[in-house]
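Sample pair:
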Amino acid sequence: MFGALIVAARDRKRLAEIGGVATRFGLDSLLARLGLGGGGDGEAAEPLSRRTRLALEALGPTFVKLGQILSTRSDLLPPDWIAELEQLQSAAPTLDFEILRPAVEAALGGRPEDVFASFDTLPLAAASIAQVHRATLQSGAQVVVKIRRPGIRPQMEADLRLIGELVRTAERSSAEVRRYRPQELVRQLTEAVLAELDFTAEGRNAERFAANFAKRPDVVIPAIYWDFTSETVLVQDYLDGVAPTEARALIDAGLSPRDLAEVGAKAVLDMILVHGLFHADPHPGNLRAMPGGRLGLLDFGMVGHVSPRRRTELVGFVQSLVSGDAQRMGEILATWTEGADVSTERITQGAERLIGRHGQGEIDLPAIVADMMALMRQERVAAPPDLVLILKALVTIEGVLSRVDPDFDLVSAMSGAWKSALFAGASPDAVRDRLIGLLLDLSALRDDLPRLVRAASKRLTSPEAAPPRDLATAAAVRAAGVWIACGLAGGGALIAAALWFR
């Protein structure tokens, strides 16, 4: 089945295992569609989507992670596939601690019973990559000890190499596959797997979140104990709380569902619109409702980054939806599908349909995202992976918050958060640095700016000048004009200020 693939000898056994699982679950038609050989599936009793999900589970944690990433890609896969892949879980059978003991003792430099004041050999939880145990430090602090499963790294690295080779083969064989830029998926998968395998990366992520929320006592990030933490073992605070899944459970615990929903929404919007670093998997198992109306965040193995440009686009998208501005929304959608062969007219029509369905009354975030992804799937374009991760996080936390407080509206909170996005990182020092940079830029342009303005004006007003052919170009032209105007006005103001305070 994969005989044409050229792989290192060390990976051939695993390649044969993958081929065997694909055959066992009857994935020949899927492989043929991807240009990897195969044929018909015969009289398969189960749908192809279900057989694919079962095969991914049988192949282990790397393929489960791949399926979980694909479950967020409703721009690529139809709803029945998304529903099936969303059933993939990272849960795994627990291991007897004696199997883990050699690796734990090597990482800690001694028996855990001696290193800690107490250590529970019965696991608190288990997943495909790690297992978690309770412990008490000599100081009395209650902690959890996260232990990587032995032998998991070489297997996952081999899987990543093979998946990369399979994707390259599929791209060479199928123009349809190339259209969806699968190498971006492979990069996302590789980054996610390598980050989750190295617990020091998770520890650093946790500390970055702790620094970002240092002034927010209502958001709790577990402290990392670096004296005991390594690539294979992570020791952090135990957060005593309840999963915020049901309003009734919160009330029974003496907590206000509405207040907790507000804390959660503000925390997520701060991550995305202010910090530019967000928890990429905020499902209920990674959240803790804690005494005093505090919200605890767990598991920072998978995080996402938001560029200033993407932050502005997200706020603009919500504002255009609320205000019914199809032109503005079309420009943003054009940016998100840049490089794809989609006409301006179709993008504008798509924006008008989105506003027509969702721009009036209460806004349903999951429905908006589902419709937008369906539009991209219809046009056969792939959304940027970072955008998909952001939207997935927003939809996930919206689902959690709607269970905590059915009346809470995350979209309204986001539509009113434009100031946070505009002034993100706007400390006095940051403002000063930006002003200095602007002055230097203006100084560099002072000789060329009049000539550039005259040339641009002549080009734009010329009878032979063709109008921009797409929304992205039109937006760029308008933005350039705005920045020239702002530059002139800002330059004048800065020069006047310099003369005033001289």
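The CA atoms of residues 165 and 440 lie 48 Å apart.
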